[in-house]
Amino acid sequence: MHAFLPAGLVLMAVESLSGQPATGSISRHRWTGVSGISVANLTSLSTYPNSPSITDTLTSFQTPSNIADNYGTRVFGWVHAPVTGNYTFSIYGDDNCELWLSTNSSPGSRRLIASVPEWTNQNEWTKFPQQTSASIPLVAGRFYFIEALHKEGSGGDHLGVGWSYPGQSLTIIPGNRLSPWQSLAPEPMPDSTIVGIGGTVGVPVLRNDLDPNGSTDLVLSTLEILNPPTRGNATVDGPNRLIRYTHTAGDTTPDSFAYSVRDAGGFSGSATVTVTLSSSTRLPMPHAAMPSAPPPQSFSPIDAFPGLTFSQPLGIVSPPGETNRIFILEKTGDVVVIPNLASPARSVFLDLDGLVNSRTAAPAEVFQTSSEQGLLGVAFHPNYAANRRFFVVYSATVGGTRVQRLSEFTASAANPNTALIDSERVLIQQANDATNHNGGDIHFGPDGYLYMSWGDEGNANDTLNNSQLITGDFWSSITRIDVDLEAPDLTPSGNGPGDDTNLRPNSHPAISLDTNGYPLYEVPSDNHG
Questions:
Q1: Hey, which residues does 165 pair with through a beta bridge?
Q2: Is this prediction's pTM over 0.85?
Q3: Boundaries of every domain in the chain
Q4: How far apart are CA 439 and CA 395, in angstroms?
Q5: Where are the alpha helices (DSSP H) in 363-448?
Q6: pLDDT digits (tens, 9 = 90+) for 308-341
């Protein structure tokens, strides 16, 4: 099963036996006047891979020796498997080399299987362990894209690729098992899909199709219906590589249609899509390995902290690098710390509801816990051990207006198990029309940025219309922000020497500003969406 789509699911085959390219040689491209011994010195050239200095072919996977200095070589084409079984590939060369093999005929599936990190002698296969691939299963009669990259500096130069397989010891791959690079026809694969009566399904027909010259060789504008369905309609959506099938008959009689596509060389291929119709409200999942009964388990719950109680605990968090201290966030408004797991005892790290409710001066604040509101998320800064910064998400009313708030606090330097209650800095204060679907989960990513999930603001079926809008508030989004500002960020220009490339957020009522009118976070410059 390859993809699920609205109103149906799509099943895709992944194997093909097509016409074979002629054997006898393999393509060789050379770039002259290239210094260095690293393969990267070759692949970084502006003329690589499309403009080599010299092109020819080899009659086996072995180059002539000692032909020049300061050049790079690309030997590529297809290798044909004579038997079904496990193959091992090996490479030698002077200087550095890489050997790539695809899982099929297309270069798009190639992966590095062996390499030469330093020079070897000719026919020296075992100088480095990297020279030999792992065992790779191949199927008789199929052909696979293969490529060797070679960089020569000075002195001796040579390159050879060999293989072994059942019944054959290590030997240079001969020309009768090789094909040079050439234009080959695409290999469309049959697809099948399941759709409900009267339903529509998009079939990504090209996703599992092979083109031995690479997927970019397919010309999307040539995708067309070859034989239309008899019990529905099929339309081509070339830019999305889809064919959309709509069922128009009133029963579950199977249907099918055929399509064709051409490549840049003008070659075409075709395949058939089989459509199964279902009257079930739940479409079958042929590839789901669901047991008839749950497997037996030996797990049983135990009280992790006997004698300790918590008020609606929602999460357990530890600061980065700590292993003996944990923090529990209680929906009712406390962040509780267990300072020593070896001797568990609870103490209040941050009395958030008490802090919020103490703000009685207008506009008065009240911590909210009804429905799905409350303390919903805690995240410790990646450099918490040095800066003691942590972030919380919670619900409150401010002057009677319900809000969802993202705030920063700092822990006490004198007592690491206590937060400074006067250290709160509000980053985002989003007005909230409902008491549920608040979101509030926050985490720092490996990129050092703070991620926060926002709900759809409340109610069933997105009645507040947040999920379909990107131009409204923060609701129905995942925010990714930079909470580590540089000094220039707190100036009128917002940038300057020593600053990164991140940007101030657009002006919005939910974004809090400091006393100078500047936001307390930036938007990463590589945010997309």
A1: 168
A2: no
A3: 3-8+189-278, 26-180, 313-490
A4: 10
A5: 384-387
A6: 999 999 999 999 999 999 999 999 999 999 999 9
